[in-house]
Specification:
The complex is a heterodimer of chains A (about 280) and B (about 120).
Chain A (H helix, E strand, L loop, with lengths): L5 H12 L8 E9 L3 E8 L4 E8 L6 H10 L9 E6 L5 E6 L3 E3 H4 L6 H20 L12 E4 L4 E3 L25 H15 L6 H10 L11 H12 L11 H11 L1 H19 L5
Antiparallel strand pairs in A: 1-2, 2-3, 3-5, 4-5, 6-7, 7-8
Helix pairs in contact in A: 4-5, 4-7, 5-6, 6-7
Chain B lengths: L2 H18 L11 H25 L3 H22 L8 H21 L11
Helix pairs in contact in B: 1-2, 1-4, 2-3, 2-4, 3-4
Classes of the chains: A alpha+beta (about 280), B mainly alpha (about 120).
Chain lengths: ~280, ~120
């Protein structure tokens, strides 16, 4: 008897696992992703004629998600993937329909040769989404590169809000999340870990310090809120000292010189001209 | 503070400082007051014009070029009018004037509020 190939087995598995969307207005297209909490499918909204993403949560995800989903669905922000609908499938599993984002997952995007400014732009966009959500009382709880997508025009989308990953990359999860309920400070830890993930091999010390402060083991020693961390990132981008990093006088001088290269160059040119004219005036 | 005022202020300050360097030349000390006044006025004119340019064109590079060109031109006029010991010191006046103009052009690009835009009626 001939053994089945891996691709055929994978197809059969997808057919068997395909959710029954009976009773919903969605028509299943194909599986597009699989994570620690469930499976994501592309589908078509028959009523509105648009493509959506359907995430079917694993059976062990409780009904508490429904309340969180209502909160997340109320968030309207350019970087937060909107949830269109939540519900329960005939087999009892929870699902939610959301905007179908066609782009690149961030862990793949970050492996490209990106400039530091682009890397920081992505981090800031994620931070802005977190800050907005926190202001509305929502917490992400599972921020990691796999939950962030980059759209075709460079837009940043943060997904999978409100459901704590059961299995996933532990490096991005705050230590207190193993024993206590996550709050906004846990997201700050994750954002710091995310910043560290996004930094290139040659990391500016100020950015390392910002990430380290956000990733403090004690929540009270992290940034008070995401806005404070974003402010430090903006100060770094503007060539100003950051609160997380205590510079030596030499480092401050190097930063000042770097930020004012043109002006210092012009002043040096003026002094050089004056020096030349004064000491060689006998030749004019 | 708008760019015109920034240009005026920095033009005056840099003009005074540039003119004061003439004290290092003993042969120029007799006319130091005139040199200071001329240098200050020159700096202010370059500053105002650079500030005007900065309100229209938002480019550090072009601001520096414009300021340097203005500084060079007005320094030429000053050198042509001034005569010391029967000589016109074009190089000694125009070269620093060129660099000072570049500095003024840079400062008016980086500082001061740009021209405010008003909606068409």
């Amino acid at each position: 008897m001939k053994a089945l190939s891996d691709s055929v087995l994978e197809h059969l598995r997808q057919v068997v696992d395909a959710p029954d969307l009976t009773g919903t207005r969605y028509e299943l297209e194909r599986e597009i992703g699989r994570g620690g909490m469930g499976v994501v499918y592309a589908a078509v909204d028959r009523d509105l004629g648009r493509r959506v993403a359907i995430k079917v949560l694993d059976a062990e995800i409780g009904q508490t998600f429904a309340e969180e989903a209502r909160l997340i669905a109320s968030l309207e922000h350019p970087a937060i993937v909107p949830i269109y609908e939540t519900g329960t499938l005939p087999d009892g599993r929870l699902f939610y329909a959301m905007k179908l984002v066609e782009g690149t997952r961030l862990d793949a995007y970050a492996s490209r040769d990106l400039s530091l400014s682009e890397r920081l732009r992505v981090v800031r966009r994620v931070g802005e989404a977190l800050a907005f959500a926190h202001s509305r009382g929502a917490v992400h709880r599972d921020l990691k590169p796999q939950n962030i997508m980059i759209g075709g025009f460079g837009e940043v989308y943060v997904m999978d809000w409100g459901v704590e990953g059961i299995a996933g990359t532990p490096h991005f999860r705050a230590p207190e999340q193993t024993t206590a309920i996550a709050d906004h400070r846990s997201d700050i830890y994750s954002l710091g870990a995310f910043l560290r993930f996004m930094l290139p091999a040659r990391r500016p010390r100020a950015l390392q310090a910002i990430a380290a402060k956000a990733m403090s083991t004690e929540p009270d020693q992290r940034y008070a809120d995401v806005a404070a961390m974003l402010l430090d990132l903006q100060r770094f981008a503007d060539g100003l000292p950051v609160t997380a990093f205590r510079e030596t006088p030499w480092q401050a001088a190097v930063r000042f010189t770097s930020r004012n290269r043109v002006l210092l160059g012009l002043l040096a040119a003026y002094l050089a001209v004056r020096f030349f004219l004064y000491f060689f005036r006998r030749f004019f | 503070m708008n760019k015109l005022v920034v240009g005026l202020l920095f033009g005056a300050i840099l003009g005074v400082l540039d003119g004061a360097t003439a004290w290092a030349y003993p042969e120029a000390r007799a006319g130091i007051v005139g040199i200071l006044i001329g240098s200050t006025v020159k700096g202010m004119i370059v500053g105002v014009l650079s500030g005007w340019f900065g309100r229209k064109v938002h480019s550090t590079a072009w601001g520096i070029v414009f300021g340097a060109a203005l500084g060079l031109f007005f320094a030429y006029l000053v050198a042509a009018m001034q005569e010391l010991n029967g000589q016109h010191h074009y190089l000694a006046i125009m070269t620093p004037g060129f660099v000072v103009g570049a500095i003024i052009g840079f400062l008016t690009q980086r500082m001061g509020t740009p021209e405010s835009r008003t909606q068409a009626g």
